[in-house]
Write a structure and sequence with these properties.
This protein is α/β, with parallel strands linked by helices and 491 residues long. It contains 19 helices and 12 strands. The mean pLDDT is 94. Bound molecules: pyridoxal-5'-phosphate (PLP).
Length: 491
């Protein structure tokens, strides 16, 4: 059902003379504005602002807000993004006065509670990664990638043998090549096999003494655990390179497998994905990184350190800047602290056993959904997955002209956020679905039923979907380059 009122502009709802406040009559002599400000500073007339009563304004914005999809209102199976429900407990913790009322310029001695929390978070992230040293500073996953690649560059420079190349598979997230380029490396793509794994022969052919880092997303964006992982790590290490683990998919392996144990030397987390920080709409996120001991000296400063006290006194926490080999600061103050506090609350709430169950249930949900849709929406990479899977509308497109985009758009009419489409690039007409562990069986069944209905609908209906949203199918390139923000112009 179209929400017409929510899509009218305040200007269209305006009635001259209406307002939100009634001021008492002026009880001092009035003087012309021109006399006070100078006539040259005055506009020709008052600005044409909309005139409305307060409830009209409140309803306008409240109705507008209902046009948004969010994890709190809709199932949001956006592959690669891990849009799990964010429990409100974490919000409450992050909003506690002892946290929100702090100022980053306060003396360290008055920040002991927050520093203790951040220190513990560093320890938990190190433990989950199987890598001993952590920086909480990066502001997003992509920023974590960049920071870790800068750490790698500093490491190789310091060894007196700088290296020029970064490798990643063709199924990698676009941030991987972007981070490599920003860190000053040449980026080289490694092919995947048809089954979706790293092509070892192609990797071997591209490995040489100029390869600094092989970036790998494991489990991959195809929802597959790289079974050649040990062999990949051995080959990269044999030629002196480092393994970077893009940790966006940690939700699949929390408490089950540790990147440091399967060969990674560095990794980032996306707390806004894995540890239930809210995301979508542009952040803020965080991108803490964990690295092997030999890379620790190059981490950004400050790092939170714990100083044991003598005589039975409690330990103290300090921000350590005294690291001569550090790449320096990559973010003001201590990083996006609010997101980090939510991650801390999430990790503490679940504990080691709970985190493992999170991953097990995420994988169970994804496999259940896969089993419900694969018969009418083929999944080229197989019958099993980790936390997400990539279906393909290629056959539907060839036979009936129905594209991945048609399916994604039509899902909005059924009250579901669209999955990720056309990523990874290695799957034609990709529909990438990640249900996460927080969805019930009923929701997964309803989603599968909607998909089943959609693929049987007429192509004409689907090409024009969605039919229930205020805007249906803008020209996406034009919408991004020349946004028309005036509703009347769109109508
Ligand atoms: C989300 C994601 C990133 C980037 O993380 P941001 O926090 O969005 O910067 C990198 N790689 C993969 C596989 C991702 O899914």
């Amino acid at each position: 059902m179209r929400n017409e009122r929510a899509t009218q502009l305040l200007f269209e709802l305006s009635h001259p003379g209406r307002g939100g406040a009634v001021l008492p009559a002026c009880d001092v002599p009035e003087r012309p504005l021109a006399e006070l400000l100078g006539a040259q500073h005055l506009a020709a007339g008052p600005p044409p602002l909309p005139e409305l009563a307060e409830p009209e304004v409140v309803r306008h914005y409240a109705n507008l807000s209902t046009l948004n999809m969010s994890v709190d209102t809709h199932f949001y199976p956006l592959g690669s993004c891990t849009m799990k429900y964010n429990s409100k407990r974490n919000e409450r913790v992050a909003g506690m006065p002892g946290i929100v009322d702090l100022h980053p310029y306060q003396p360290e001695s008055t920040l002991q509670g927050l520093l203790a929390l951040l220190y513990e978070l560093q320890c938990y992230l190190a433990e989950i990664a199987g890598l001993p040293a952590v920086s909480l500073q990066p502001a997003a996953g992509a920023h974590g990638e960049l920071t870790a690649l800068m750490v790698a560059a500093a490491y190789f420079r310091d060894q007196g043998r700088p290296r020029t190349k970064v490798l990643a598979p063709d199924s990698a997230h676009g941030t991987n090549p972007a981070s490599a380029a920003m860190a000053g490396f040449d980026f080289v793509t490694v092919r995947s096999t048809p089954a979706g794994f790293v092509d070892l022969a192609d990797l071997e052919a591209k490995l040489d003494d100029q390869v600094a880092v092989f970036m790998i997303t494991n489990p991959s964006t195809l929802g597959l655990f790289e079974h050649g992982m040990r062999e990949i790590a051995r080959r990269v290490h044999d030629c002196g390179g480092l393994i970077y683990l893009d940790g966006a998919n940690m939700n699949a392996i929390l408490g089950i497998a540790r990147p440091g144990d399967f060969g990674a030397d560095m990794m980032h987390y996306n707390p806004h994905k894995t540890f239930s920080g809210p995301h979508g709409g542009g952040g803020p996120g965080a991108g803490p990184i964990a690295v092997a001991a030999r890379l620790a000296p190059y981490l950004p400063t400050p790092v939170v350190e714990r100083v044991e006290a003598a005589g039975g006194l409690p330990p103290r926490y300090r921000l350590a800047y005294d690291r001569p080999k550090s790449i320096g600061r990559v973010r003001s103050f201590f990083g996006n602290t609010g997101v980090l506090v939510r991650a801390y609350a999430y990790i503490r709430t679940h504990g080691p056993e709970g985190l493992r169950r999170v991953a097990e249930n995420a994988v169970l949900n994804a496999n259940y959904l896969l089993s419900q849709v694969k018969d009418f929406l083929p999944v080229p990479q197989g019958d099993r997955c980790t936390h997400e899977f990539v279906a393909s509308a290629a056959k539907l497109k060839a036979e009936r002209g129905i594209s991945a985009m048609d399916i994604a758009k039509r899902l909005l009419d059924f009250g579901f956020h669209a999955p990720t489409v056309y990523f990874p690039l290695t799957v034609k007409e990709a529909v990438m679905i990640e249900p996460t562990e927080t969805e019930s069986r009923e929701t997964l069944d309803a989603f599968a039923a909607a998909l089943r209905t959609i693929v049987a609908e007429s192509p004409e209906l689907l090409h024009k979907a969605p039919h229930t949203t205020p805007v249906s199918r803008p020209d996406e390139v034009r919408a991004a380059r020349q946004p028309v923000l005036r509703w009347t112009a769109i109508k």
